[in-house]
UniProtKB/TrEMBL annotation:
The keyword 4Fe-4S belongs to this UniProt entry's keyword annotation: yes
Alphabetical keyword list: 4Fe-4S, Iron, Iron-sulfur, Metal-binding
Protein name per Swiss-Prot or TrEMBL: Lysine 2,3-aminomutase
UniProt entry tagged with the keyword Iron-sulfur: yes
SUPFAM superfamilies (alphabetical): Radical SAM enzymes
Biological source species: Actinoplanes ianthinogenes
InterPro entries according to UniProt: Aldolase_TIM, Lys_aminomutase/Glu_NH3_mut, rSAM_sf
Length: 451
């Protein structure tokens, strides 16, 4: 008997990427490959409401599902519906969907949430908030968050090609829903972008800019290229990261000739000036990875982008098992050329309790991931603690498992704490989802709610 005869907790099997057959959906039976590969066709045919979803799915799913979805959109959804065909096509990818398989699908779970998914006893944590990371509080110019000492987040716009149910920026991004009236960017883009550059020029200690939104794939290319070239003209900026879930949700965008040619110009300029240019995408499940996604990632690397990395979100019902994450990471790294980078614990926004995992679960998953992937491709699971920022899940200072309260410390001041003498010495709280607590902990929270 060998030492491995009992088997491993996870058995690796290579899975080559496959583009699901979109003609299995009644509404797309006559869609040609040329149409499917067109970014314009994908955008025009996005699913934005229940009526349009029914036109694609027909009677493959019961009317009860559509009613469940409509109920969620009216009472609970923090994000409006927006699904490119590319993303919808990765739901139940290997068969014609039916009601049971569509409900069970992990991508459907977070991109097309329904009322029955949510924990109606605890839909939101009592300490949830619509800007859970206080990014808006840290704006130093409209859309420019200065949270970390050497890094800023630039929100160029408030729209995406697709809207994720768990979006951490649900206070700003997307259309208003019945339960969440959205904030608005009020400045003209040219004025907003100029204010960003002015701030960076006057703050040479900032060397790293995350260019996001929304999703940069929705910025008209000429505007985005001008903004990036502006960043590259600031000598103290050394890292630029473009955030785009559309690399996965709408890869056709990143394969358009004008976008490829423009990104090449930006990448060449970045290389010449010694600036690290990377693209960060957001893939949460292996089924989202298709040959089109791999082509888009490979094209970015071929034209000079230094890295394409993935920042996923750890969510129950989607990917919160070791096997799910390892399957995803092997496909990202081995098949698509995308580096697994972070998995964030789902943030404490309203109506997200059914997705969130407790800190101890994230710690166990980080433990169980180790040793399978190459070290450089082993993702870090992080907790984005309000007012603190990203922390590896094992960096918790104190942890009350009964009540689900973890306490964390920090080693820098944000832009709103420059005069706070206790910022680096006090403890900051983060909260586990209440339904994961022992009964005594759940009872304690009910008493807090009642008082």
């Amino acid at each position: 008997m060998t030492e491995f005869s009992a088997g491993q907790p996870y058995e690796y099997q290579r899975r080559e990427l496959v583009e699901p057959d979109w003609t299995r959906f009644p509404g797309w039976r006559d869609v040609t490959a040329a149409q499917w590969n067109s970014a314009q066709w994908q955008r025009v045919n996005c699913v934005k409401n229940v009526k349009q979803l029914r036109a694609v799915l027909g009677d493959l799913v019961d009317e009860s599902f559509y009613a469940d979805l409509e109920d969620d959109q009216q009472r609970l959804a923090t994000m409006s519906m927006l699904l490119p065909p590319q993303m919808l096509n990765t739901m139940v990818p290997h068969q014609v969907p039916d009601t049971v398989s569509f409900y069970a699908d992990p991508i459907r779970n977070y991109m097309l949430p329904v009322a029955s998914d949510r924990h109606l006893d605890w839909p939101s944590h009592p300490n949830a908030s619509r800007d859970s990371l206080h990014e808006h509080d840290m704006w130093v110019a409209e859309g420019l968050t200065h949270r970390y000492p050497t890094k800023v987040l630039a929100e160029l716009l408030s729209t995406c090609p697709q809207y994720c149910g768990h979006c951490t920026r649900m206070d700003l991004v997307g259309n208003s829903t019945p339960v969440v009236p959205k904030l608005k960017l009020v400045q003209k883009p040219v004025d907003r972008y100029a204010a960003h550059l002015d701030y960076l020029k006057s703050h040479p200690g900032v060397r790293d800019v995350v260019v996001s939104g929304g999703d940069v794939a929705n910025v008209p290319w000429k505007q985005l290229e001008a903004y990036l070239m502006g960043l590259l003209s600031v000598p103290t900026v050394r890292d630029i990261r473009l955030a785009t879930k559309a690399l996965m949700g709408l890869p056709q965008h990143w394969l358009q000739d004008d976008v490829v040619e423009g990104m090449h110009r930006v990448a060449v300029t970045a290389q010449r000036r010694g600036v690290n240019l990377a693209v960060h995408t957001h893939v949460n499940h292996v089924n989202s990875l298709t040959p089109a996604v791999a082509r888009a990632a490979q094209t970015l690397l071929e034209i000079g982008v230094r890295d394409v990395r993935n920042q996923g979100v750890l969510m129950r019902g989607v990917n919160a098992t070791t096997a799910d994450l390892l399957d995803l990471c092997f496909a990202l790294q081995g098949e698509a050329g995308i580096l697994p980078y972070y998995f964030y614990m789902c943030d404490m926004i309203p109506n997200a309790e059914h997705w969130r995992v407790p800190v101890w679960h994230a710690q166990q998953m980080q433990h169980d991931l180790m040793g399978y992937l190459p070290g450089y491709a082993t993702p870090r699971i992080v907790c984005d603690v309000p007012f603190v920022g990203k922390r590896w899940v094992h960096m918790v200072n104190e942890y009350d498992r009964e009540h689900g309260i973890s306490y964390w410390t920090k080693n820098y001041r944000t832009s709103i704490e420059k005069d706070d003498s206790e910022a680096l010495s006090k403890l900051y709280a983060y909260y586990d989802p209440i339904d994961t607590l022992p009964q005594s902990g759940q009872d304690w929270w009910r008493k807090q709610q009642a008082s």
